[in-house]
Amino acid sequence: MAELVAALDFKDAEEAQDMARSLAGTVPWMKVGLELFTAEGPRVVSGLKELGFKVFLDLKFFDIPNTVRGAVRSAARLGADMVNIHALGGERMAAAAMEGAAQGAGFGPGPLVLAVTMLTSMGPGDLPVAGAGDPSDMALDLAVKAKQYGLNGVVCSGLEVERIKGACGPGFACLTPGIRPSDASADDQRRVVTPARAVRSGSDYLVVGRPITRAVSPGQAALAIMGEMERA
Ligand code: C5P
Q: Has 49 been annotated as catalytic?
């Protein structure tokens, strides 16, 4: 069964904690991204763990292998349940990330390490690379590489999950941002799908930010999305 991940894209810990408290007991996962982590640092992660959430630390690491190994090790020590790196970092960076996850895990299972394929905000023509292909085709190629590198799964659009699962197997996790209920605005996202379509395609984790966090009642919005996921 697919799980819902709420994206806590807030400017400070107080706003984020208020939102997290209103979703505690409903949504299993919280995602801490660049804005919140840059402002508040590790204490945000420990606060969410205390509220009982599983935490996806979405910092999209992309650096030389030694630096990424250390960053993932630190994230694992913090108690993050999932982290991500860029698939474009290649095999040695991916291997270093897996080493860091194991080193930081202690006696626990350690975080899942996923690879970002192509950002869901990128549509055809958005990649600033001459001769770049279709973003969905590139996401599939990068997912196949990520699987070969021994990573646990990928971040991709719901549009790509079926092909990625077909190529990489059902056990290779697909986490999909760019989820929009049919009546919601796409905002800056380009490759979007509804919660139902993401679940039917086989997505394991659905990341939803603004359709929940900017709703009049975030708890109700989350419940409606989870209802749609269950029916699918
Ligand atoms: O508000 P919205 O639902 O668009 O939020 C999506 C979240 O997922 C944001 O925090 C964004 O940084 C993240 N994300 C994404 N596309 C990726 C990876 C992460 O939109 N490929």
A: no
**Phi, psi (degrees; rounded to nearest 5) at 61:** -65, 140
The per-residue pLDDT for range 36-53, each reduced to its tens digit, is 999 999 999 999 999 999
Query: How much is the CA Rg of the chain, to the nearest whole Å?
Result: 17
Catalytic choice (60, 145, 147, 165): 60
Smallest CA separation from ligand 1 atom 8, residue: 177
* 157-172 pLDDT tens trace: 999 999 999 999 999 9
Distance, CA of 61 to CA of 77 (rounded, Å): 16
Q: How far is it, in rounded angstroms, from Cα 202 to Cα 164?
A: 10
Instruction: Please state the pTM of the whole predicted model.
Output: 0.95
Q: Which CATH number fits domain 3-231: 1.10.3470.10, 1.10.3720.10, 3.40.50.720, 3.20.20.70?
A: 3.20.20.70
Asked if 59 and 34 count as a contact pair (C-beta separation under 8 A), the reply is yes
Nearest-CA neighbor of 16 among 46, 42, 48, 41?
Answer: 48
Q: Which amino acid is at 45?
A: V
With a 6 Å cutoff on the Cβ, whether 208 touches ligand 1 is yes
- Tokens describing residue 49: 């763990």
The answer, yes or no, to whether any atom of ligand 1 lies below 6 A from the CB of 228, is no
C-beta of residue 132 within 8 angstroms of C-beta of residue 104: no
